[in-house]
Amino acid sequence: DEEIQLFRDINDNQKRMNTSHLDGITVKLTPEEELKRRHPELFIAQHLSRDPRSPLHGKVFEGGKRPPGADIPLRGLKTGVEYMLSRSTQLPHLEDPEAQFKVIRNYLEAVKRWQPKAWTHPKDYIVLRGAGLWAVFFIGAQVIDRVLLKNKYSSAEMLSILKSGRDWDWGTKGDFKCFSGRSGALEISKLVARKLHSGDKI
Fold first, then answer.
1. Which of 44, 53, 192, 193 has its CA 20 to 30 A from that of 22?
2. How many C-beta atoms surround the C-beta of residue 160 within 10 A?
């Protein structure tokens, strides 16, 4: 009878838990080496959140009480990293997730220098949220591939590629205001990538 009552109470009063909070719990419960092996995208996302040198340090919400300025859900960031790893041809060759993290951190530093206003006024831009954030990671797969193929990985190299394209308006009412979700992120990345100059082009 007690089990039946407990079953009833749990299912009658259940409340959906924040997915970022669930990811945060996974990080806490999983030893680091196992997390690298089983969930590299979550390992990288969590490091992007907590590394003081990361452009996203202090900007990621991992569940619980939301700190001021932590507007990027850990689940959204993890998904972005997952998209990048699935699209890149070169990042998977860096089999150590710590090495992948360092390259991705350099890329995000380049993005911050490319779109600095998105960091100082994040609510006015889509770079750090929704389709805009995912588009940044889709674009990053191509930018990172270009530099790694040249045996380079510096933020400066990636910034030069980002700056080689069109000067897009990433504002909430800018060039990408009608795009949403994964499909919207893909479309944004295609538009931006088409305008990036390739050093190998004749």
1. 53
2. 16
**Residue ranges of E strands in 65-194:** 72-73
**82 vs 100, 104, 118, 166, CA distance in Å?**
12, 12, 22, 26
Q: What is the pTM of this model?
A: 0.85
Tens digits of residue pLDDT in 10-64: 777 766 656 655 666 676 667 778 878 888 999 999 999 999 999 999 999 887 7
* AA identity, residue 136: V
In the block, residue with structure tokens 């949220």: 129
Q: How many CB atoms lie within 10 A of CB 131?
A: 22
Q: How far is CA 193 from CA 55, 123, 132, 137, 165, in A?
A: 22, 24, 14, 12, 8
**Tokens found for residue 47:** 């490091």
Which residue's entry shows tokens 């993290």?
101
Contact 128, 72 (CB under 8 A): yes
What is the amino acid identity at position 108? L
Q: Tell me 14's DSSP state.
A: -
